[in-house]
Specification:
- By secondary structure, the protein is an alpha/beta fold.
- It has five helices and 15 strands.
- Strands 10-9-8-7-11-12-15 form a seven-stranded mixed beta sheet, sandwiched between helices.
- It is globular.
- The protein is 16% helix and 36% strand.
- The protein starts with a strand and ends in an 8-residue tail after the last strand.
Length: 245
């Protein structure tokens, strides 16, 4: 974990209520896809955890949906403003387990952390397929960005207004893959768990207090006991998850 000051170089809408923010600063602690950052915002006690969409040596890209006080503050920020950011939090996806044909599944704002993962897997010579799930056409984002990487990209919408009608798991059933990676709301993760035919990794979303394992506020039960989503997660292997009814 590393604390640093980052400067906003872009904060633009992708669709209504979803923005992409690009920041410049020290990204040396991020290291791998699937990790998150924790952002300090004036007037708010708790930092806001946001997954990393992409990064390089000097820049960090996050995508966020405006849903509360913190993201509302971020929405109004301009180029040149500075943010206090904790980087290198949580664990990430393990690309060494992917096999030759990994499948990536993202739901809504669970899509962003899969972008750098797809980039990394493709650079390793893997044939990547991505399924992006949304409720309707107006919510779709980052389809073109995944296609530009060279990933086979499938979009599903619940109402059938764009792409394939249904859920990510409907498209998943029609594909062959060697391993899967996913991020999204818990009902989607549970459905992927039940549908999947291989091992895989799941990134969980959870309300966090500290964001680095001190407060135990984001603990969840696994086959080896309780684990902290912010520290031992957010990425967990399929076989270690215990689902609560």
């Amino acid at each position: 974990m590393k604390q640093g000051i980052f400067e906003i170089i872009e904060n633009e809408y992708l669709i209504e209520n979803v923005l992409r923010m690009k920041l410049s600063g020290d990204t040396s602690e991020i290291k791998c896809p699937g990790r998150f950052v924790n952002i300090k915002l004036d007037g708010l006690y708790l930092r806001r955890p946001i997954s990393v969409c992409d990064f390089d040596e000097n820049t960090l890209t996050i995508i966020y949906k405006v849903v509360g006080k913190g993201t509302k503050l971020m929405e109004g920020m301009k180029k040149g403003e500075k943010l206090d950011v904790l980087t290198g939090l949580g664990n990430g996806y393990d690309t060494s387990l992917s096999g030759e044909r990994p499948l990536l599944l993202g739901g809504g704002v669970g899509v962003p952390p899969l972008y750098n993962l797809a980039k990394r897997l493709i650079s390793e010579g893997k044939k990547v397929t991505v399924i992006l799930g949304f409720n309707k056409k107006s919510e779709v984002f980052y389809e073109d960005e995944f296609k530009a990487l060279g990933a086979e990209t499938i979009v599903t919408t619940v109402d059938g207004s764009y792409g394939k009608k249904g859920f990510v798991t409907d498209a998943m059933k029609e594909l062959e893959y060697t391993y899967f990676y996913t991020c999204g709301p818990e009902p989607m993760l549970k459905a992927v768990y039940k549908t999947s035919e291989t091992e895989g990794e799941m990134s969980f979303e959870k309300r966090m207090g500290c964001g680095f394992g001190a407060c135990m506020g984001c603990s969840c039960k696994t086959i080896t006991g309780y684990k902290r989503i912010c520290k031992e997660g957010p990425v967990m292997k399929k076989e270690e998850i215990l689902w609560e009814d």
